[in-house]
Amino acid sequence: MTLSAQPPGPSAPPAGAPSDSARRGPRGLARAFGVTAAFSAVSSLLGLARDLLLARLFGAGAGSDAFLVAWTVPETAAPLLVDGAQPLALIPAFSAALAVEPVRGPQIPHPARGPRPRTLVSSRDPVFALVRATLPHLTLLLMAATAALELGAPALVAAMAPGLTDPSLAVSCIRLTSIALLGFGLAGYFAAGLRAHQRFTAAAALYTVYNIAIVAVTIVAHDIWGIRAVAAGVSVGSLLVIGTTGLAFHRHCCPLLRGRRSRRARLGATGADLGVRTLLPVMVFSLGRQGQVYIERFFGSRLPAGTISHLNYAEKIAQTPMAVAVMISSVTVPVLTRALAQGDTARARDRVEQDLTLASAMTLLAMAFLIACAPQVVTLLFQRGSFSSADTAATSTVLRVYSLGLLGQVLVGAAARPHFALRASGGRARSAARQGAWTPARAAGIGLVVTLGVSALTAPRFGAEGLAAANVVGVTLTAVLLLTGLPPRGLPIRITRIGAQLGRLCAATLCSAAAAYAAARAAGPEPMTALLLGGTAAVAGFAVASLPTGLRDCLRHRERHDRDACEPPAPTPYRS
Among 64, 155, 339, 375, which is least packed, fewest CB within 10 Å? Predict the structure, then answer.
């Protein structure tokens, strides 16, 4: 889908014609999910390769701890600007702009399409108006934030990790990674516009390009720069993702370069609401979710050297299956937003409930496997080079604790998106959504306070395991608050039904974990054999134990729902 469209005439679709995504039917949604899943898998593998390279070259010690403090910068920028606050605000905004009839300009060559005559969208086009009203200000803000981070790196390290052995190394790494603010900020903006236009490939490839750059620069420069080479790779990758997503945005959404200046665009003409009252709750929610990383870094810096690294490696392993599960709800956000905008709360409710069930089932299966086979997973992935058997034992224990919070992590991601999609709804649902705009931020804040309190109590006695347990408690509470906050905001999901379904899936998880643990123990000391047998037993045990949960019926209902969601709505004036 592009911003430009042919003027009304023989080639224009008639009034009431279905959208491009509707004409593709369920195949369009399936293709979007397939493309996103493929790139997500590749990105996860590359991220794993990056972590394996980091463990092999630098192990788990004072140097890796210093880098991981700097790694907090892209770790914060990615969920805030690519996966969290910015897309949660911008996807509904772009969707609202696309729902406004554009004023068509003259027939002149389109700068993104070559010499073929196209209708140039004027400054009165809602999507162009949205871009012109927001992108320049966002760019200046990101550049200022990047410069401030460069200058304030020493103070940030002193506040965030006061117990580091080598704070100067952390400062230099932060200055190298600070460009991630600019890179992820612009790339996240472009990716949000692409997703709203049902263009998923470039947005899905973002992390693939980013991780390739980190791995390549680390391999080439680690002998010269040491662990600073990884930070330099972050800088290179952050710049590359701007080009990757920016070119696609220019081609499919809105030309970024124009041959003549047009008048100043007004945000109010776009149908989008991007004021401070809209953006601030989203940003606070995302920062609150990311705050647990800062808590871990703060308390971990006071523990023995290598603690932060053990926490990081365990978290990276645990988050790999979680990313695939959260992707389910990410792909369906535009469908959910349109259903709410049309006032079809029943369809939106069914979509959310089905996404929650499927994402939870995938996550619980992975959780069972990781709890049962954590030592074998860490041994196979990391125990080589500078990563010792003691590091393996410590990371395995932390991984088992972290895995207990995977369900909460997925439910937070799946439940937060409906909260922010409600902003694009209409009527009574929109009024309720505005009244509860701070519900996700409050939930994240309460979870963060609980995480901080539990960390302060458990870290001195239990070390890294105590910090991981605090994370589990905080994120689980946040998930409960988000789920129970949806019905009052106008999305009547059936909490009792969801809870019963999750309870049955958790029972299946216990059976799966027991089967995987027994199989891994019987396989002997060889990690690959143990993982193959343990994984097979986990899948078989979960499949058998989940039959009474009705998961199969849910998947069938989801397939029918996808077909219904892609059917054209009632006739409306044609929009490009």
Answer: 155
